[in-house]
């Protein structure tokens, strides 16, 4: 399994998101090839169909897909059980890892 975490450097949530991803993989007893993909500008965001920072793709498929007509550097928010946050919870990531493992 390859997991790409797309982010841009100005996003305050990407480091916490990476910690949550590593915790989720550990909790699931899974290993993955994790790639950090820094998105540099709006042109690259459009080319990558970047949905905001942080975004997670498993084997090239976004874990939380959205339809958009424009792509640009932005922070992404997640509707977690606790509130809207800048990164998915460990449990949310565990569920996605399980769904891609089937």
Give a concise summary.
With 102 residues, the chain is an alpha+beta fold.
Itemize the secondary structure elements and their pairings.
Layout: E1 2-7, H1 14-28, E2 33-38, H2 42-48, E3 55-58, E4 61-62, E5 78-79, E6 84-85, H3 90-101
Parallel strand pairs: 1-2
Antiparallel strand pairs: 1-3, 3-4, 5-6
Helix pairs in contact: 1-3
Protein model, in words:
By secondary structure, the chain is of the alpha+beta class. The chain has a single domain, classed as Glutaredoxin (3-Layer(aba) Sandwich), CATH 3.40.30. 33% of the residues lie in helices and 22% in strands. It has three helices and six strands. Strands 2-1-3-4 form a four-stranded mixed β-sheet, with no helix packed on it. A two-stranded antiparallel ribbon has the order 5-6. α1 crosses α3 (90-101). The radius of gyration is 13 Å and the shape is globular. The mean pLDDT is 95.
Which terms would index this structure?
33% helix; Glutaredoxin; 4-stranded mixed β-sheet; alpha+beta
């Amino acid at each position: 399994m390859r997991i790409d975490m797309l982010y841009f450097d100005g996003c305050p949530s990407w480091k916490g998101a990476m910690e949550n991803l590593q915790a989720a993989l550990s909790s699931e007893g899974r290993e993955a090839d994790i790639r950090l993909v820094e998105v540099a500008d709006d042109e690259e965001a459009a080319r990558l169909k970047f949905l905001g920072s942080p975004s997670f793709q498993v084997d090239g498929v976004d874990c939380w897909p959205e339809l958009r007509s424009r792509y640009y550097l932005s922070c992404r928010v997640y509707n977690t059980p606790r509130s809207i946050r800048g990164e998915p919870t460990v449990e949310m990531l565990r569920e996605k890892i399980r769904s891609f493992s089937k």
